[in-house]
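We close this part of the discussion by returning to an individual protein. Part of our work consisted of pairing the sequence of a single chain with a tokenised description of its backbone. The amino acid sequence and the backbone structure tokens for this protein are reproduced below.
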Amino acid sequence: MASHIILPPDDEQQRREDEEADEPPPGHDGPAAAATKAALPFSAMCVRISRDSYPNLRNLRNASNVSLADAAYVKISEGDFGYVLDDVPHLADYIPDVPTYPNPLQDHPAYSTVKQYFVNEDDTVPQKVVVQKNSRRGIHFRRAGPRQRVNFESDEVKACIVTCGGLCPGLNTVIRELVCGLSHMYNVNNIYGIQNGYKGFYSSNYVAITPKIVNDIHKKGGTVLGTSRGGHDTKKIVDNIQDRGINQVYIIGGDGTQKGAYEIFKEIRKRGLKVAVAGIPKTIDNDIAIIDKSFGFDSAVEEAQRAIDSAHVEACSAENGIGLVKLMGRYSGFIAMYATLASRDVDCCLIPESPFYMDGEGGLLQYIERRLKENKHMVIVVAEGAGQDIIAQSIPSSEQQDASGNKLLLDIGLWLTHKIKDHFKSKKTEMTIKYIDPTYMVRAIPSNASDNVYCTLLAHSAIHGAMAGYSSTIGMVNGRHAYIPFYRVTSTRNKVKITDRMWARLLSSTNQPSFLSQKDVDEAREADRLANKPPLPAGANHNVATAFGQSASSSSNGEI
């Protein structure tokens, strides 16, 4: 079976590099510039090759971060001035002459007054918006929204919706808007809910859902479809999709769930099925790469702040009172950071990305002593993934994992509580500490107003993309909704950059020490650079490699 790999012929690639070396500065046209323009059309040069016919595929795979198995699913297009489109798969990539139909929205009365409702096929969204005058245009993603032509007729659509992983504010809103959007915008009548996560594809009955059934579910927390971790069996899932005639699959979940969606799409494409897969990223920790933020994050921060307010009241009401709040954040401390900034009552915020130490000069315990001496009370916020290396020095760590493959964490909140108590007991100093863990309160609430709007836009963007034949993850990039390749959101994790100004704002707000040496800062900068470097697609030429390299220095959801 042949694969589409973006690979210019060797002679052509060398010619482009030679011409770029002689290219005049921007704004000065010359023979070399004209030749380069001619050599770089908007669409990339795609060479159709078989896996057995090209002798250098092994070298190509070894030189790339994207495996040879994934090369067939990567679509890269180039344009002038360093423009690179990291495109998403489409039904037409593997189904010849897939039929298209007029979009029923063109006759919808609600949209008749919109001046330009359909998205231009050439519209893209840049990953990096802060540039200099000589910057290359860099990586772009396909803009989300309704297309003038779609690949599904309303009567033929059989859609299913599944929620996976942990709870998060907004899950029910996304479900509601998917059902109502499919029904009201595209007149789809066959919509089914998959119960209890991925395993529901092959172990539970499908539940028919209508706009009437989901009308009020956005006012409730959790998910009406149920959820679970694990249970992903690609072959069983796709067998079930094929047997039931499902042709649109909407998958709501975190990075592990999106990896599962990617595997489902690859198996669907392998079988040549006319099925679109839309991934809607969900993580309360806000650790999905590329996108500005995940839905439910604003609601989580708002609820977390209430827990901080309670801790502050407790701390102020006792002699040498300490309020300790543990918030979610296994690998990324965004909830802790934003809740701290929103509260202004926090004296110390500890997150996984910023190491700290307990004892000695400049340590946490010394800072707590000083803060209590100055203010007589203190509030500490700690993310659940912080300080795991310190705890492991005194408590044997378990290598157990949950059903999603995440390592089970030791309780940093309880550990800190005991360490602080023991420290002040040894100093014969009276103090009171109140430990609050609002984890399940935060994730079980319904979404707030801003998240409700965001969930609606995500759901509608997912529907428009699936109807147009695209399979991708949907997210907001620099304020615009875009279709993002699965491999881009699953290859890295979004983390707090402790070398950015946002973290500096937090340190300024709390007046806490950074607990960092210069070596720690240098290591953090290098870790940020590597963590935000996207995987280089197989066969990427010099221009594409440069664009992907530049994106490592910018995060769409980092600095503000």
